[in-house]
Amino acid sequence: MERYKFLEELGDGTCGSVYKAVNLETYEVVAVKKMKRKFYYWEECMNLREVKALRKLNHPHIIKLKEIAREHNELFFIFECMDHNLYQIMKEREQRPFSEAEIRSFMSQMLQGLAHMHKNGYFHRDLKPENLLVTNNILKIADFGLAREVASMPPYTEYVSTRWYRAPEVLLQSSLYTPAVDMWAVGAILAELFAFSPLFPGESEIDQLYKICCVLGKPDWTTFPEAKSISRIMSISHTEFPQTRIADLLPNASPEAIDLITRLCSWDPLKRPTADQALNHPFFNASYPLHDLELRLNTIAEMPNLELNLWDFNTKQDECFLGLTLAVKPSAPKLEMVCNASQDMSENFLFCPMVNNDREPSVFWSLLSPDENRVHAPVESCPLSLSFSPMQQHTSVGPPPQSTTGFTVGSSMQPNMLDRPWMAVSAPFQQTHYL
Ligand SMILES: Nc1ncnc2c1ncn2[C@@H]1O[C@H](COP(=O)(O)OP(=O)(O)OP(=O)(O)O)[C@@H](O)[C@H]1O
User: Is 130 touching ligand 1 by the criterion CB < 6 Å?
Assistant: First the structure.
């Protein structure tokens, strides 16, 4: 990490502290996330399979992870640097609400990034204003948050998304998750961009459900056949709620905006529009009248079924995820199948004992394809460099393109990863307040 000069702290999250830094070789300004937990073995780092996923999720509205470095058992992620997050922007302009055009622009960018993510088999699960980074009005989805092995908690996942943006099926501890959890968060964020305060500011998990009921009314409980939290269901069933309509909470929002929020924040995950469908909502296109909406939504191509059953997940401890993710993690037998299928291109290269040596090597892991990655040359100070990108031009025949004691991964490995189910957990809830 001597190549980087740390300038200032940009943020302090559950998993890591983020610093603005400058690359002393290229003078590029970057954001370095220093993970809070130690990584004693490369194997642990390599269990962050979503690093490979991030490479797949190359999109203008998804933050770019440029490199990974491990030094003295500390792990660093080097990202492109952004100026603000959406929470900071709202806080700074509290007296000056966004125009609907500004909100439309932010939402459209977020939905484009999300649509790309969902189509590629991942979902974020921790969308919130702090994780939406903005520079010059360009928005990028960030925080693929390092998280613990999913298997340590399924199916009673508590730490899936920050509470205020957490979908009801998660609050009710349903064992089934779909990308619709992200769409719920999108609805809550959209409302917040109008109100500059959270739509459902629950102070506890049960209070979160109460707050939702106060706006949406009680759900049809048959919507959640997988729900495990019977006590929460019972508690809500026996409570009367004062009702406040979304339109009353957001007097500055257009009918189109209210309609979109209402659809996104549907109790039933199946009734929430997908990211692609949301982008086709009249909120984004005035020439599509609201009354025409049902017809058009029904004609939009169906999304792939990304539903997961958390019961299927294996129970290996300490598997870490850089968590943008939930891609679909297979149960153990399925995992074996995938490994067998990929054999020589399997992830075994990641567990090479050479990586785990006593000399504390700095390992840089270049993640962008050569045309995007400004650091082309091997990093001289690094005894080991893992590079994915050159293999797109090189087959597995011949020497690896970099001169270090590195490993290379054939591009033919990537299609397997697309099929591969895996999953990540979002960071634990971190309550935030304006003011
Ligand atoms: N690439 C970046 N450019 C600029 N600022 C960033 C960048 N990445 C993160 N930050 C800032 O650092 C904060 C914390 O980062 P991040 O959310 O990735 O950490 P975390 O530990 O995963 O947090 P959380 O507790 O939300 O899971 C962000 O809210 C953002 O303000």
Answer: yes
The H or E element spanning position 122 is none
Q: Is 161 in the pocket of ligand 1 (CB under 6 A)?
A: no
Question: Are residue 184 and residue 239 in the same domain, yes or no?
Answer: yes
Q: What is the pLDDT of residues 351-380, one digit of tens each?
A: 222 233 333 333 444 333 334 433 333 333
Which stretches does DSSP call E strand in 136-177?
138-141, 146-147, 176-177
DSSP H or E stretch at residue 386: strand 384-387
Q: Compute the distance between CA of residue 401 and CA of residue 381 in angstroms, rounded to an integer.
A: 17
Q: Which positions are annotated as active-site residues?
A: 126
Q: pLDDT digits over 99-140, tens only?
A: 999 999 999 999 999 999 888 888 888 899 999 999 999 999
Q: Quick one: 90 and 195 in the same domain? A: yes
Residue positions counted in the chain: 435
The range of the structural domain enclosing residue 221 comes to: 84-151+160-290
- Whether residue 182 is contained in a domain is answered as yes
Instruction: Judge if the beta carbon of residue 427 lies within 6 A of ligand 1.
Output: yes
